[in-house]
Amino acid sequence: MAAAAPAEVEQDTKGEKFAYQAEVDRLMDMIINSLYSNREVFLRELVSNCSDALDKARFIGLTKPEVLADNEKLEIRVRTDPENHTITIEDTGIGMTRDDLLNQLGTIARSGTRKFMEAVKESKGDANLIGQFGVGFYSSFLVADRVKVQTKHPEDDKQWVWESRAGSHEFSIYEDSEPSLVRGTRITLFLKEDSHELGDAFKLKSLLKQYSEFISFPINLYASKREPKQVTDEEATKKKQEEEDTKAKEENREAKKIEDVTKTEYEEVWDWEVQNDNKPIWSRNPKEVTKEQYDSFYKTTFSEFLEPLAHSHFNVEGTIEFSSLLFVPGMAPFEQDMMKRSKNIRLFVKRVFISDEFDDDLLPRYLNFIKGVVDSSDLPLNVSREILQENKIVRVIRKQLVRRSLDMIEEISKREESKDDYKTFWDAFGRNLKLGIIEDTANRDKLASLLRFHSSNSEDLTTSLDDYVGRMKKEQKAIYYMATDSVKAAKAAPFVEQLAKQGFEVLYLTEPIDEVAVTNIGKYKEHPLEDVSKENLDVSGDGKAEAKEETEAKFKGLTDFMKEALGDQVEKVTVSTRLTDSPCIVVTSKFGWSANMERIMKNQTMADSRAMEYMKGRKIMEINPDHELIKALNSEVEAGRKDRAGELAAVLFETALLTSGFSVDSPSDYAAKVYRMMSGAVGGSSSTTGDGKKEEKAGEDGTVETVTPEVVTDEDPWKK
Ligand code: ADP
């Protein structure tokens, strides 16, 4: 079976030539020239491809037994030829047609290629990453300067050869003149000189042990074994005979013939030997499987190089029986797309691999990062998506998988000895749980307890709602939160002022999804969650109501005036009890969009513009009656200087918009108003822009309007 290298070299120019697709070509260059560490992963990748091909053959064989008829065996064979420096890896899987060869191995771009190349740059040339990106086959060029693939697919009556040399930028395909495969694929690697050491059976044995122990088909390695053999120990026999002879002589009798004395000798026997325990790990008793074995299974099965954060292995018995092994990954995938099928749950029926495309039916979308296997004996072997969707059994399985997944996550969150684990989890998958709050009403309470937020309590650490509740003051009426786009902005928000002064903790919601999630929670353990940027937030102690009425009456003239001046931009102007340092804030009415939501909606191109206009109008301006500016403005209104007061009110409003997290409609108009006021204050007639450029034009009232190009370009000063 080992190829004779010299003869093969002559055939090198055979067949039709094809250029690699451009990206694949660059990938090949990278594999050949810049991946240095962990090159031995090629074996794991190729064996894993064999395993996939065998899964496919077994699956097709369920409905078309003739596919398996000529060779019932489903197995992998690995063999090395140290003299010629080749390794062959062969499977009796589904094989490839000529089209498959052409498309899968070279001419069609693989979606993970670019991502892989980026990841490699960051990892300083670690080949270990390769399997995650669906380009595992090319890992053969890590160790080989020439690769030959021979393959036979049941639906193609010819056996085909694919061949390529490292660095040639092309590959060739031709019909195999000596077809030798019944079904499946044989890959021959002609090892590079610096990889010759890998062509050693003992080395391969240890690599298979390390990387492929949990492949569920037998992996046979052609290797030598020391076998014990009983042989005659000539010397011992002779000695014993001599003793007997002497003794016989002394006793004056005839000597007996001594039986041969044997000894054990070891001889080297070359033969095929199964290297892995191919009984599926999930069908074993959990008590007999070690954490290392689970981790190793996880890495092999899902091409991961980090240990999982947690696993859960369980068997459900009763009317419905199934077993499952689930994992929480140790890191987020390189390509995270909640809308895409993740191929993370491998479904088996009676240990036959059925598909990894049923994730959506087996787990809700928000848990699509969970990886694992499910093996049921109750589902039909020909199970399809349609069957799954209507199947009662699937509903039971799904419910269990969700429960076990959440249990695993909860367990990580409670680890006292390694608190970083939950931080790792949260950074990678926290957003998924927030999506869960919105989508999975049945598990909302449990999910809420798993959330983490930044808060005014600590700069760096995040807090759970339980910890927050534990710190709540006796008189505190609600769990307060402020939604914006960064911790910095949340801290600086005027709404937080009074609360902070009274020692109330405020959660900082800094991701777009936070606000929606928290609104969905509504109440946590009897405590309502309240947005501090909404109207009517009552943080004052009791007994202040009367004082408030009095102040309101005193400032009625001003609030009425301001409402008139601001027109449709606000729903109303009120006197605030929650401000200390700021002159005013803009809040939203209970049903309006918060500043954060408005920002998110504005950024969505699909946002309905009528809804936008309507919601924008639902703002309330709250003024601080103790602030010098407000007092001064009140005097202006009382004195009847309405023009000036009107302009002041407009600037105050727009400034409050900014500090409250909204954006102003026209930054240039806003800036012009500010400069006009500033020039009034300094008594001058012109001003200079930041970069020294002057751009002046006389306004109708004779004042100078200055426009700064910088401000104009920054449409949304609130954005990072
Ligand atoms: P992936 O396996 O993640 O799709 P690879 O680069 O490892 O990516 O393989 C590319 C494709 O080549 C596979 O999807 C499969 O179609 C085909 N292939 C590779 N090895 C084999 C094999 N041993 N038997 C059949 N097909 C194979």
UniProtKB/TrEMBL annotation:
Species of the source: Ostreobium quekettii
Q: Which family does it belong to?
A: Belongs to the heat shock protein 90 family.
* Gene Ontology MF, one: unfolded protein binding
Keyword Chaperone tagged:
yes
State the UniProt keywords alphabetically.
ATP-binding, Chaperone, Nucleotide-binding
**Which PROSITE patterns does the protein's record reference?**
HSP90 (PS00298)
Q: Where is the composition biased (Basic and acidic residues)?
A: 691-700
- Where on the tree of life does the source sit, at the highest rank? Eukaryota
Kindly provide the name given to this protein in its UniProt entry: Histidine kinase/HSP90-like ATPase domain-containing protein
Q: Mind telling me which NCBIfam families this protein's record contains?
A: PRK05218.1
